[in-house]
Amino acid sequence: MTLKENILEIACKKNACITGIDKLLEVNTAVELIDCYFRYIDFCLAKKVPNMGFIRANFDNKLLMDNGVYLDTTGKENNLKRCAVIGRSNMTLNYDGYSVGRIYAADNSKVEINASGKAYVIVDAVDTAKITVNSSDNAKVIVSAYRNTEVSGNAKIIRKKTSTYDL
User: Fold this and answer.
1) Are 165 and 126 in contact (CB under 8 A)?
2) What are phi and psi of 81, to 5 degrees?
3) CB of 54 within 8 A of CB of 69?
4) 79: DSSP letter
5) Do residues 51 and 124 both lie within one domain?
6) What are the pLDDT digits (tens) for 119-140?
7) Do 137 and 72 reside in the same domain of the chain?
8) Which of 16, 43, 63 is at the close of a domain?
9) DSSP code, position 162
10) Which domain holds residue 50?
11) 77-88: burial string, b at 16+ Cβ within 10 Å, e else
12) Cα distance between residue 116 and residue 96, in whole Å
């Protein structure tokens, strides 16, 4: 069975939407699989499709990082447009100037966000992710913090009552 067929089987078992399945059927490369992951990230994070073990076993870590997925990674990045910080990652993400970023933090990940200038960053934190925000100048950071997450710092925090996305 191919990587795509394995993910299709997992997604179908977790009741993925028809649109998502159709989009997955069009995928031909690992990069397109990662793009599909981001396109349907609410489902992927809520249902753990694919789960961390599957990602570890089937995707090269460099390919993941080159495409904005940080799995069990410790490091620092600047002005990422989109990223998913998952697994046991510990990342520092810096935004400055007029940069715009979209961050998804899940599992047991820890993310420090430093935003300055007129940066604009939106964060979804699910599972037991820990987020620390240091915002200065006119930068704006908005965090949707689901039930079991921890958020500290000077962000606008939107508290959610569920532990992950409502599908």
Assistant:
1) yes
2) -75, -40
3) no
4) S
5) no
6) 999 999 999 999 999 999 999 9
7) yes
8) 63
9) S
10) 3-63
11) beebeebbbbbe
12) 5
- Does 78 lie in the same domain as 49? no
Domain shared by 151 and 82, yes or no: yes
Q: Which helix (H) or strand (E) holds 159?
A: strand 156-159
Region for 65 from its dihedrals, namely left if φ exceeds 0, alpha if ψ lies in -120 to 50, beta otherwise:
alpha
Asked, for residue 167, whether it belongs to a domain, the answer is no
How do residues 61-92 score in pLDDT, each as one tens digit? 999 999 999 999 999 999 999 999 999 999 99
**Does the predicted model carry a pTM greater than 0.85?**
yes
133 belongs to a structural domain: yes
Q: Cα(54)–Cα(143) distance, rounded to whole angstroms?
A: 28
Decide: residue 116, CB within 10 A, 0-12 exposed, 13-18 middle, 19+ buried.
middle
For the chain, how many structural domains are there in total? 2
